Backbone:
């Protein structure tokens, strides 16, 4: 399969030098032959990440020689993709809201649909920050994606990001440091609000919301590689929302916001659950497919027009 492999291997079995264009073609062909969805994109991402090249290099200088060890690393990464591992797990990183975030086994991959929550919250929090500060609490932070994206968009804001998994908290702290946001970011191990103190202008979360019985039906890339704790929302998928709604008021500033991601069939049930806790929906946020993906809520105070 691999062009130039035989010609470049010496008698001692050194790795083959291969042209960048050839490596890309063969990588695409290998993944496509196995029926991998988005084979061309996955092949390009893997090759560029491992070899340190860019799309422009492949277009302008396809003859660029890739040393044998780098080519072998590409092949090893492709083997992992063929075994079902998601491409961003293989790379160990994923971009979210323009930020490059490291992943770990304890964290979900942040996905583009979650960015819509940041889109809708950031302008509101900018106004809060202009009035004298903005404190954000991110529950179940994982990589730190939501908190770090908001910090990047809201100058002067600060965030406390908590997760029940210590490894996830360490990953979030490392991402904050890599992005130069450590001074405004605190990571803390906490089971929801158990180790939280203080008041916040916004409480945000992308909590586990998959019904337990549906876990087995998820795509293998999700079921086998995302942490179960970050997926399983209990028998009806609402356990996390109950925990958040039950105590959010204790930690929310007057006129503060709650922003939560939801599953695509959970809109009305989550809205009702928060309504029972004294909250009203200020905005329902649709995802890239036009489905309800997040809710932004405020405490439902008499006389307020939402």
Residues:
């Amino acid at each position: 399969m691999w062009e130039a492999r035989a010609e470049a291997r010496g008698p001692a079995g050194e790795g083959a030098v291969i042209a960048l264009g050839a490596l890309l073609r063969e990588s695409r062909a290998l993944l496509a032959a196995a029926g991998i969805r988005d084979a061309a994109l996955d092949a390009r991402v893997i090759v560029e990440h491992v070899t340190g090249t860019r799309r422009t290099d492949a277009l302008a200088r396809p003859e660029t020689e890739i040393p044998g060890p780098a080519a072998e690393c590409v092949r090893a990464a492709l083997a992992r993709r063929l075994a079902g591992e998601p491409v961003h797990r293989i790379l160990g990183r994923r971009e979210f809201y323009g930020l490059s975030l490291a992943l770990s086994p304890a964290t979900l991959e942040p996905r583009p649909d979650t960015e819509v929550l940041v889109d809708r919250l950031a302008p509101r929090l900018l106004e809060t920050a202009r009035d004298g500060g903005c404190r954000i609490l991110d529950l179940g932070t994982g990589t730190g994606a939501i908190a770090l994206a908001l910090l990047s968009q809201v100058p002067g804001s600060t965030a406390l990001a908590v997760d029940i998994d210590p490894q996830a908290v360490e990953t979030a702290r490392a991402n904050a440091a890599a992005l130069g946001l450590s001074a405004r970011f605190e990571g803390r191990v906490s089971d929801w609000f158990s180790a939280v103190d203080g008041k916040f202008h916004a409480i945000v979360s992308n909590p586990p919301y998959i019904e337990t019985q549906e876990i087995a039906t998820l795509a293998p890339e999700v079921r086998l590689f995302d942490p179960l704790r970050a997926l399983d929302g209990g028998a009806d998928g609402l356990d996390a929302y109950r925990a958040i709604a039950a105590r959010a008021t204790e930690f929310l500033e007057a006129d503060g916001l709650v922003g939560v991601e939801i599953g695509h069939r959970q809109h009305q049930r989550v809205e009702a659950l928060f309504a029972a806790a004294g909250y009203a929906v200020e905005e329902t946020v649709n995802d890239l497919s036009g489905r309800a993906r997040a809710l932004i809520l405020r405490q439902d105070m008499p006389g307020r027009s939402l």
